[in-house]
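Board notes (copied after class):
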Amino acid sequence: MLAGMTSAHTDPLSSSSQPDPAWLGEQIRQLRKLRKLSLQQLSAATGRSIGFLSQLERGKSQPSVSDLNKLASALAVPYSVFFSQAPQHERGLVVRQAHRPVLHYAEGVSDALLSPGFGGELQLMLSRFAAGASSGAQTLTHGGEQGGMVLCGELELWVDEQRHHLQAGDSFSFNSSRPHRYRNPGTIETQVMWAYTVSD
């Protein structure tokens, strides 16, 4: 669902766990595209040159631990996103439950990435809304399409300012260019299985 992020949740990992440069570069590139940031904007946010970041995305440079921390902060993702724990033959294909990257939002919402990486047009997420949590006061609009199913709890979905009150087992889909927002109006956590397409 990708509401607006305000901070990154960092997981300190040792520098001895450096990821594969080509895989890491692709993760950074796809995250940058997902956040709709140019190399120039990412350079300004991290203090690293455009040339270095370009080489990094192509797997031609190896970042320091400090670089990865700055990138995690600029891209608003956990530091652990840059460390694939999947076996080589499963990368890009399988995501084990214990290794899901989790994106944390300021509004009491988190997204666990179910897709094997940030590449590709189709992304799958497991969203968790704390009681009363929402995507924010502002409506969201972006490219692509999205849909999902409420697994537990309840979800208040607004599309074009029309309210839909969804219960566990209810599903939905709509074009993401339509103004939308969501909220958990209940007193327990809501979980939503989410699918959306990413457009440039």
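Comment from the instructor: The two ends are 16 Å apart (CA to CA). The chain is about 20% helix and 25% strand.
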